[in-house]
User: Fold this.
Amino acid sequence: MRVVGLTTTLCALLLAQPAFAQEWTEYVNKVDRFSVPAPGEPTTTDITWDSEYGAKFPGHAYRWNQGPDRYTVTVVDFSDAERIHAAIKHEAYVGGVGYWVIDIAASIAHAARLYREKPGVKVTYDAFHYVNLITGHMLQLTNPDDSRSYVAIYLHENRLYVLDATVGKGQPPPLIFQQSFAMLGPDGNTIRYQSLYYNRFPERQLGGRGRGAGGGGTGGAGGTQPQGGQQGRQ
Assistant:
């Protein structure tokens, strides 16, 4: 059951949008474990994500178009990172963690850099961010055609989530798309943490050099466990 506070927030955000945004509904994806208010069903595409350290990871891009505005949630799956790096013979240095761990840890910074380096963009906001206490990064950019891109990037349970809401010149910020984004647990319920969450890496499966990374991706900082339900966002 959804918490009343979320319903109230969604109603307020909907009223702040143009008239056509009244057609929005909450899109729930139990495969990539997220929910987000969006204008209908997305176009879904299988993608390959080129990482900072030369590996290619599978993922999905969910896209919506509404008038001049474009909304995208890109999800990259790092759960098989150790095997993918082993296949390209990208080994760890002696005594250190595997590059597959570093690649996951660097993924938010790498995704943010890809936006900063787009030709002709002007970055107007660039800072740490979190949603439901899941840590990440937020960017706001003005594009060469004077459209505005509002980007949020999060890493949760070894999945990278990149939200990109690009609105036409003069359109209001896409508050409903960003502020009501949520991660879902295996049961499909919204995840809530008791303190700031930082991604934990998959358990090591392969042999060879380098140490494995700590436990699975279900805990936050200091081993904080998630709880079901909804928490206010920033």
Q: What stands out?
A: Residues 4-15 form the longest helix (12 residues). The first strand starts at residue 25 and ends at 29. The CA atoms of residues 130 and 136 lie 5 Å apart. The chain is about 20% helix and 35% strand.
